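Hey all, sorry for the wall of text incoming. These are the two entities for the joint prediction.
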Amino acid sequence: MKQANADRLYCLDTGAERAGLHCGMAYADARAFCPDLQTRPADPAGDARFLRMLRRWATRYCPWVGLEGRDGLVLDITGAAHLFGGEAMLLSDMRQRLVRAGLAARIGLADTRGAAWALAHHGEGRTEPGQPLAALEHLPVAALRLSEEAVTGLTRLGLRRIGELERTARAPLTRRFGPELLLRLDQAMGRQPEQISPLAEPPHYGVRLTLPEPIGLFDDVMAGTGRLLDQLCARLKAQEAGARSLCLTLRRVDQEAQTVELRLARPLRDAARILPLFERGVREVDAGYGIDQMRLEATRVEPQPVRQLSHVSSGRADRLDDLISRIGTRIGLENIQRFLPVDSHIPERGFTIAAAAWSEPGGPWAPPRPRPILLFPPEPLTATGTRPPERFRWRRMSLSTARATGPERIAPEWWLPDENWRGGVRDYWHVETRQGRRLWLFHTPQNPGWFVQGEFA
Amino acid sequence: MSSLNASFPLRPGRVHEACGPLAVAMAAVAAAQVSGLLWLRESWRPELINPLGLADYFDPARLLLAQTRDQTDTLAVAEESLRDGALPLVVIELSAPLSLTAGRRLQLAAKDGKTTGLCLIPEGMGSNAAETRWHCAPVFDPSDSTLMRWEIIKNKSGTLGAWHVRWNRASRRLDLVSPAGKRPGPAGAPG
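and here's what came out:
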């Protein structure tokens, strides 16, 4: 783990701890202590993800499971222990399963959260109900979740064990260390309550429908989809979210599954508007011997807060979004695009093309000089000289120049490498031919040559 | 004598065709008169409309571009969007001639959606179902560099004609120009 410009140990296993290493130690020092140290870069995000998965697994013991710091779980097993045959059995079951999964865990079980934390971090074990002090007496004061200064201060006073702290007079301690210290002590002893807040389950946007008899007709499948959509949209509405992409899985009697994907131009939670968009995909489904299970899931969800309806609601914008979604089911949503202006003099970089579903119209458009309405990749001409040629052939037409306006010199943007601009600067000319065509020619003086790049109206 | 006004703001609810080197300019002029448009183009084509050039005609923010794989997709999308009616103008770049069925389907879709379709076709590949067909070409004029010649070469409900027109950038308006020594009006019309 890179921290403050130095490699430091982020977390280590019991073997390493026995060898005298500790968390936060510089990597170089650690290697000096322990030459055959094996390290891997830390991945806090991955660890957090794994911890969340583990939290979900832990709900098999009790419904109230929360996260504790960056490497712990806290379970409130009140009223759940007897299901596993008592606290001892629960602990051994949990330990066994964790070991089988290859995880080293330290588990403390106590009447209070504070006591359990102390046991888990400083020697494992379990307290007898109602007598937390018996188990905690010999633990260091650091086990009370105290700040660094408080622990140092207590050590200076000679109070090293929780038992010693418990027997000291309370008033002077409060005066010296503030209420925090005794609050922690009371929490561990059970004299002050402390809650466990379980982590909320992330909302799940999936619904399914199992049918007693297989169906195969288009109308039936659409009716089923409609029912699923109603449920899903109610759930989305409760969470103030809108679906951006949906996936409908149709399982057939012969265990084959077919999916219909739908991507929307705007987050939507209006069942009546989404349902017609499924028509095209559902029509292509091969029902085989019939479909007996349908599952609809919102695979991408975006927040969509509730909005005040007004009489000037954007009916036309909604229609346009629906049209984009519908076309998108055919040619792909990213192929419906809009132009956005870019501040660049390079003709082909004066704009970008962005998918309409993920962008807003931009502006203003202010070309510095008249620009052609058609652009194409440069087409070479056989001509020489720095002035536009009198006569030239282009696309098998022989054209003669009647009027040429220019040059407009455009230099390549050196900060962006571009294969097409290897020829160096370009002198652009607006050439009107006697035959009518008005072309955009350019000459590359550094690498002599003439090209046609566009056509004016 | 027919005037340009009888045929130019393209009749809504129908599909029209434009060919010639400046068919794109005609589409741009038509787009200047509506609130939004969809431009359909096959993604393999090298030419691309330039929004900086189109800004002389209309605000490119009103333009939606749909890039399709082939003409089948183009026609499907065109029919869908013409029928939907959310956008009043659909410009369709075609690379192959339309069959009568396809052309007729587009007409019906435009009629249902009360929208206008404009197909940009290669020269000589018109469809019989089109309401009007225009040929647009630039004309060289010593004093003017935006002069165009628009000619109706097919009209289902009107007469043919040819006009010299000019796009006025400042007022965003189409000006009719009488060529020197000729009258505006149907080509070759006497006196």
